[in-house]
Design brief:
single chain; 2 domains; 5-stranded parallel β-sheet; 9 helices; alpha/beta; 239 residues; Rossmann fold
Length: 239
């Protein structure tokens, strides 16, 4: 790999951008392709152009052979997914450790110091601050999921706006359909477009009949993983 390609890869990783190193096994030539390259079809062979989007979603490296007999090794570099939970609530107590087991970096934000305590959330990054302050140190991006769980507009609404603006791969919010309808009115009154607002998963979580906080946490994590592995394929909708 030449120095320019290595520098480009390191820059992509610093910016939390997905990238794939394409190594031609016959020539040894290595190329770098980023997920957000707009001219992907012009940069690689047609067979690779068809394969790369799925590899970006799966984060799976491996050997590829084209119909012409050319062999390439794809080395996939995908940023570690993050989960930002708004609300140090009972659901969060179950969701945080499960999400960590699933490989997500977890941060919990809640300005209510009675809830945001180390005793309730051991071994989890916990910020007892208002979201507008806490998010200054946690830039949201396309590999971040945001789950708003407080049921309090003063706490939930701003991070939902920020998540939509940052194109987070998952944006979910706790609440009934009636509650969510009021939420949509508030968000659109602040300038959020109808198309962006429609990306919010609400009621949050897959429809598995969850009742307890732990069961709801399972449904939320399943929906997050589904969204991560189907980035760019599906249109989010309420569950």
């Amino acid at each position: 790999m030449d120095r320019f390609t290595l520098q480009s890869l390191n820059e992509a990783r610093r910016q939390r951008q997905a990238a794939i190193l394409i190594t031609n096994l016959a020539s040894g030539v290595v190329r770098l392709v980023r997920e957000n390259d707009v001219d992907l079809d012009l940069m690689v062979e047609p067979t690779l152009a068809e394969i790369l989007p799925q590899r970006f979603r799966s984060a799976h490296s491996g050997l590829v052979q084209t119909p012409e007999g050319d062999e390439f090794f794809l080395t996939v570099h995908v940023p570690p997914p993050r989960l930002v939970i708004i609300g140090a609530v009972h659901i969060s107590q179950a969701l945080a450790p499960m999400a960590r087991i699933a490989g997500l970096d977890v941060t919990i934000i809640d300005p209510r110091t009675a809830f945001a305590t180390p005793e309730r959330f051991a071994n989890v990054a916990l910020l007892a601050e208002w979201p507008e302050d806490a998010l200054k140190g946690i830039p949201l991006d396309a590999f971040t999921a945001v789950a708003a769980l407080t049921h309090d507009p003063k706490i939930d609404d701003l991070p939902l706006q920020a998540a939509l603006a940052a194109n987070c791969f998952y944006v979910g919010a706790l609440g009934s359909r009636k509650t969510h309808a009021k939420r949509l009115e508030r968000l659109q009154a602040t300038g959020v477009s109808g198309a962006d607002a429609a990306r919010i998963r609400a009621p949050i979580g897959l429809a598995i009949g969850a009742q307890s906080p732990a069961e709801i946490a399972v449904s939320v994590l399943a929906e997050i993983i589904d969204s991560l592995r189907k980035r760019g394929l599906t249109t989010p909708g309420g569950a």
